[in-house]
Amino acid sequence: MTNNIYANARAVTAMRNLLGYDRLVRMAESANAKDAFKILSEVNFGDGTTSDASEYEALLAAEEQKLTSFIREVSPNEKLTRFLLAPKDYHNAQALMKAKFLKTDAAPMLTEEGLYKTELLKEKIFADDYDEFPSPMAEALAKADVLFVSGEADGRKIDVLFKKALYRQLRELSDSDRLLGEIYRVKADAANIATALRSRDFQEAKLQFVGGGRLGDDELKILCGESVETIAEKFRYSPLKDLVFAATEGFSEGKPLSGFERLADGYALAQLKKERYNDEGYRPFLLYCYYKTAELTNVRIVMSCLSNQIFGSDIKSRLRETYEG
């Protein structure tokens, strides 16, 4: 494990290789996916894994792998490493659990490796050997076994089981860390707000509720049952106002929660950017990790949109927070 000074220095150096806002805008304004792909090629994005614009996901996979390796190698704090990589581990554990019981190939469902190698996850999960994993993951895997064996498993139940386990671990990892604690609280609030507005069912929202945020039962009930106008009034002076207002924008017209998801995804980065010259603790390291994560999301958005004949301003309106230089 490194220290903060080394990790921050490596992160500041790595920031110089980020695409940045200007290049992303150039990509978004490209006439087609091939032209946008040329911009990625100019900076050797994905180490030239492919020269075919239609295979841009291969470049993204290569960059995701580099980020994961960077976190493993450079992170100054084991809890921080686990906090950043846990979502990948839980995604892959859930995919492998489904593959185990449904007798399907897990490969199409897997994402980039996190802290655990895929082969290790597969070996342990297929052998029902969960002792090596953190208790939230081990318990989720054991409960999933019971659901599948009893014939009670379905997609929703398994999704909820692993989602709650992931958030429980993230909460445990961030409990004694002020910065991670702040990031986690927003993640938890965003997850609970989204669940409430998508289900509009208080009991379902309670079932999927993740702890450690600022949203309470009374507020959850309002989100599940009240009109958009009433929700706006009830949350007018709440610290959750920005999240709730973003979530309800366009909700009454049945529009997707895309604006809200952009805000929630970009919140940690937006907060870190406000203090981007503050090198206290491991802030520069964490800032780089969120910059790079946002870059990967933005490249996927741009390339996917262009491949589907969506252009210009329609693409730019979907972009997340990003590095601006």
Characterise this structure.
This protein is mainly alpha-helical. 67% of the residues lie in helices and 0% in strands. Helix 2 (20-28) packs antiparallel against helix 3 (33-42) and helix 13 runs antiparallel to helix 14 (258-274). The protein is globular.
Short précis:
The chain has 325 residues and is mainly alpha-helical. The protein has 16 helices and no strands.
Mean pLDDT: 93
Beta-strand proportion: under 5%
Low-confidence stretches: none
Number of strands: 0
Summarize the SSE layout with pairings.
Blueprint: H1 4-15, H2 20-28, H3 33-42, H4 56-74, H5 78-102, H6 118-126, H7 135-150, H8 155-174, H9 178-199, H10 202-208, H11 217-225, H12 228-234, H13 241-248, H14 258-274, H15 283-307, H16 313-316
Based on the model shown, name its key terms.
325 residues; mainly alpha; 16 helices; globular
